[in-house]
């Protein structure tokens, strides 16, 4: 019975995911066409003639009515065809595939760092030593408010230029691309991306631990002879669900931050691609990237919910 | 609360161990790089993405794409002559060794360069030329690409082509066009054998031309690498390898140069020049044909009054902008043409910094109490220089004489989208462009058949129309100089500055002298150990 409910819960969320993605796709489709700009002119340059631009617009299908374009795009999308990017002269799928891979790696690295950061900060923030709490409060405020753009530039300057510990950008060295090579390239951008989400999760962990500390649970467990390590495990198990929810939401802010961080570290990911395709008014590319980002975000939220449901039976059976 | 401390300490220790292990592992892995004796030049480009590598499609990436990709792999019949860094860049032979133009100005006999082979060994001859032209112009050709041909409007002037012998071809034009040879510079030629076998799609991924460098590899959205063409028909390059990395962010480019990730950066920021030089880097720049200006809407009040337009041109301190704001990475512009242009005449440098005269002119025009104008400008992108701070400086300078400017920032596509629709609400638009290809001026910057700024000067229009069909170089130059003279006198634009294409490079880069052009040749460039 509970199993059944769980499946229904996942099914409903999946349906919601598809609807959200469709909604985002539709909004982006019309929004990008509403802002002024001529894709043909950005491709052909200012020294092109109006006739040449009109010709290219026909080739790109932009002479058709907007609804014909929309349903045409939707129809091709259903068959898995993301379209063709005229500004880059190749199929959109060939462009967004590698970009998604890079952003996924960056996101995974940032998540890892954020979780470690959250564990350290959340625990230190509930320390019994006053000055430690003070320092952590201060660090937390700094991490939460420092703009990712600035953090990225400072990290770049500090650890790639002044103290050249890490590469100054790119996702891998030419002709390398092994695990350690990519990892080295990811340290700085992932850190820049992880500070705010890490601090946010740390805060959630701090609250959970502090709440727990005010109850009788931990002294009771200790009285039963549990080792400090087991105690910590219990404390963190309770703190986990809210942390995962926060993480899921923070993935959205990470995707936003990737816009800046990928540009600064010249990582060819989705964030860099968004900036570039919007400025080129490459409609098909903008649509594909926006759709992909929406799907990634919704899927991450879904995963967070599923994970929470697995961890917390009350959510699973819908009694929370 | 003893347990909290214990727990905290343990967890902290674990976390610290994880982080430091990760740092050590990755840090060590990051510091070792291959140390072969290969001479490699790595360039940090401001391009945001790579274009398709199929001939004309490379022009999508603008001058930078042509300079750092197109001209390395491919060649046209002609090229920009940058052999003298102190002279404006004219037309030089490339895959065409020489040419004759018939009396009727319609028949161009082209003698092809001898002993040229494509990178795959295919010979360059009349058949190779014709194969490529058919591919560009014949809609039934299997490799015809409707997008590609839009980059090559010069081909529309070709009525027919005739093969005289293996190394001679005659183009018959449908009407006289004086810039035929000049505009052929980027009509690239690809290996017919490679097109035959792999088609246009093959060319887009694995281009085969005749250029000084051979395409080696491309890492999607990251870098493109070329190796020297040892069989190049002219001077063989010194570099073994040339790599271009995409670093669109300006601060990131500077950091990449400082950290040694790249040896050379395009479009260096003027504010970084002093510190880069202090750190031992070499900066380069040479004023070229790049006009950074405001195009004025001359049909609407208040800028329909020539006195207001002239007042603007007298009100601004160009020297201060070029030297103080841009640290001499630009030179002041006093007229339509840059000194690096073939059509520049010093006598037309008529606007000086004279705020008093500007106030007088304004008062004469009936704007003694000042006037309000709105100006659209492109915030960033290739060639826009330091658009924001430059426009703000102009705003402040114009305010001194009572011209109150409202700035309206847009992006590149937005600018031309709005101009195309015609309803901008602007009195002027700031843009930066090159005037080196006169065939493209009409309709865009001026011309009485209609243009974005409704600027029409019948006399200039007539001189321009005459120049387009005048094959004699000197005569044509004089006509175009006259166009510049008239437009400058009319104060059709606010003339501000010419870019120097600021670059910065490591001291190890040798043999580079920046020409007065956007075009760069890498033949003499080498890397010191």
Mean pLDDT of chain A comes to 84
The number of strands of chain A is 2
Spatial arrangement of strands, main beta sheet of chain B: 8-9-10-1-11-19-12
Q: What structural category do the secondary elements of chain B indicate?
A: alpha+beta
Roughly what percent helix of chain A? over 70%
Q: Summarize the main sheet of chain B.
A: 7 strands, mixed
The percent of residues in helical segments of chain B reads: 25-40%
Distance between the termini of chain B: 63 Å
Strand residues, percent of chain B: 15-25%
Rounded to an integer in angstroms, the radius of gyration calculated over CA atoms of chain B is 26 Å
Helix count of chain B, per DSSP? 15
Largest sheet, strands/sense/barrel of chain A: 2 strands, antiparallel
Low-pLDDT stretches of chain A: none
What is the terminal separation of chain A in angstroms? 17 Å
Low-confidence stretches of chain B: 1-35
Largest interface: A-B, 82 and 78 residues
Which keywords apply here?
heterodimer, A: 320 residues, mainly alpha, two-stranded antiparallel sheet, 1% strand, B: 529 residues, seven-stranded mixed β-sheet, disordered N terminus
Structural commentary:
- The complex is a heterodimer of chains A (320) and B (529).
- By secondary structure, chain A is mainly α.
- Chain A is built from 13 helices and 2 strands.
- The mean pLDDT of chain A is 84.
- By secondary structure, chain B is an alpha+beta fold.
- Chain B is 33% helix and 21% strand.
- Chain B is built from 15 helices and 21 strands.
- In chain B, the strands form 5 sheets. A 7-stranded mixed sheet of chain B has the order 8-9-10-1-11-19-12, sandwiched between helices. In chain B, strands 14-18-13-17-15-16 form a 6-stranded mixed sheet. In chain B, strands 4-5-7-6 form a 4-stranded antiparallel sheet, covered by helices on one side.
- The longest helix of chain B is centred in the N-terminal third of the chain and has 30 residues.
- The chains are: A mainly alpha (320), B alpha+beta (529).
- At the A-B interface, helix 2, helix 3, helix 5, helix 7 and helix 8 of A face helix 1, helix 4, strand 10, helix 7 and helix 13 of B.
């Amino acid at each position: 019975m509970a199993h059944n409910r769980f499946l229904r819960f996942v099914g409903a969320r999946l349906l919601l995911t598809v609807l959200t993605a469709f909604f985002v796709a539709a909004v982006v489709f019309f929004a990008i066409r509403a802002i002024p700009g001529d894709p043909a002119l950005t491709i052909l340059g200012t020294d092109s003639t109006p006739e040449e631009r009109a010709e290219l617009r026909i080739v790109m299908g932009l002479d058709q009515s907007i609804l014909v374009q929309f349903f045409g795009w939707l129809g091709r999308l259903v068959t898995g065809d993301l379209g063709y990017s005229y500004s880059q002269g190749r199929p959109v799928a060939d462009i967004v595939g590698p970009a998604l891979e890079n952003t996924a790696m960056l996101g995974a690295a940032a998540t890892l760092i954020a979780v470690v950061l959250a564990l350290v900060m959340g625990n230190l923030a509930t320390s019994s030593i006053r000055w430690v709490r003070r320092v952590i409060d201060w660090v937390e405020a700094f991490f939460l408010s420092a703009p990712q753009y600035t953090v990225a530039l400072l990290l770049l300057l500090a650890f790639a230029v002044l103290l050249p510990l890490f590469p100054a950008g790119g996702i891998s060295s030419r002709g390398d691309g092994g695990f350690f090579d990519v990892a080295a390239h990811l340290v700085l951008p992932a850190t820049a991306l992880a500070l705010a989400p890490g601090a946010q999760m740390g805060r959630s962990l701090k609250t959970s631990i502090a709440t727990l500390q005010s109850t009788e649970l931990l002294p009771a467990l200790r009285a039963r002879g549990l080792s400090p390590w087991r105690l910590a495990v219990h404390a963190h198990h309770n703190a986990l669900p809210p942390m995962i929810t926060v993480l899921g939401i923070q993935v959205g802010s990470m995707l936003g931050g990737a816009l800046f961080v990928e540009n600064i570290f010249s990582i060819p990911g989705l964030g860099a691609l968004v900036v570039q395709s919007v400025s080129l008014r490459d409609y098909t590319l903008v649509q594909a990237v926006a759709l992909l980002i929406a799907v990634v975000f919704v899927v991450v939220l879904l995963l967070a919910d599923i994970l929470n449901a697995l961890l917390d039976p009350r959510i699973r059976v819908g009694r929370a | 609360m003893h347990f909290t401390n214990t727990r905290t300490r343990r967890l902290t220790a674990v976390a610290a161990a994880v982080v430091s292990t990760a740092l050590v592992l990755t840090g060590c892995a990051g510091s070792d790089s291959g140390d072969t004796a290969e001479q490699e030049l790595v360039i940090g480009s401001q391009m945001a993405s790579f274009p398709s590598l199929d001939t004309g499609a490379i022009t999508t990436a603008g001058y930078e794409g042509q300079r750092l990709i197109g001209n390395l792999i491919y060649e046209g019949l002609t090229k920009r002559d940058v052999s003298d860094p102190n002279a404006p860049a004219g037309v030089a032979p490339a895959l065409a060794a020489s040419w004759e133009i018939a009396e009727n100005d319609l028949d161009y006999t082209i003698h092809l360069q001898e002993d040229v082979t494509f990178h795959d060994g295919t010979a360059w001859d009349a058949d190779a030329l014709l194969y490529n032209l058919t591919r560009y112009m014949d809609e039934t050709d299997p490799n015809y690409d409707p997008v590609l041909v839009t980059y090559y409007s010069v081909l529309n002037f070709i009525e027919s082509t005739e093969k005289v012998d293996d190394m001679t071809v005659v183009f018959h034009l449908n009407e006289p066009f004086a810039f035929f040879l000049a505009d052929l510079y980027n009509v690239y030629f690809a290996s017919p054998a490679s097109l035959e076998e792999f088609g246009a799609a093959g060319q887009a991924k694995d281009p085969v031309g005749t250029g000084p460098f051979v395409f080696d590899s491309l890492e999607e959205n990251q870098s493109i690498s070329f190796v020297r063409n040892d069989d190049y028909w002219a001077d063989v390059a010194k570099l073994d390898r040339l790599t271009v990395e995409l670093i669109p962010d300006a601060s990131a480019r500077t950091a990449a140069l400082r950290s040694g990730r790249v040896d050379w950066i395009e479009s260096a920021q003027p504010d970084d020049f002093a510190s880069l030089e202090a750190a031992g880097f070499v900066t380069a720049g040479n004023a070229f044909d790049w006009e950074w200006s405001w195009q004025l809407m001359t049909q609407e009040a208040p800028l329909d009054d020539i006195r207001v337009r002239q007042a603007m041109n007298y009100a601004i301190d160009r020297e201060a902008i070029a030297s103080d704001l841009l640290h001499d990475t630009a030179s002041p512009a006093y007229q339509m043409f840059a000194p690096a242009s073939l059509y520049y005449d010093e006598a037309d440098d008529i606007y000086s910094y004279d705020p008093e005269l500007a106030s007088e002119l304004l008062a004469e025009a009936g704007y003694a109490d000042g006037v309000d104008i709105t100006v659209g400008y492109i915030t960033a992108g290739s060639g826009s220089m330091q658009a924001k701070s430059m426009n703000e400086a102009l705003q402040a300078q114009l305010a001194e004489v009572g011209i109150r400017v409202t700035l309206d920032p847009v992006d590149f596509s937005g600018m031309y989208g709005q101009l195309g629709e015609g309803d901008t609400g602007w009195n002027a638009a700031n843009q930066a462009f090159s005037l080196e290809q006169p065939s493209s001026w009409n309709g865009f910057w001026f011309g009485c058949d209609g243009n974005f700024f409704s600027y029409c000067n019948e006399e200039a229009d007539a001189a321009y129309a005459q120049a387009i069909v005048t094959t004699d170089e000197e005569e044509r130059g004089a006509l175009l100089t006259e166009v510049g003279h008239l437009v400058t006198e009319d104060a059709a634009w606010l003339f501000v500055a010419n870019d120097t294409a600021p670059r910065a490079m490591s001291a190890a880069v040798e043999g580079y002298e920046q020409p007065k052009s956007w075009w760069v040749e890498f033949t003499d460039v080498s890397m010191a150990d």
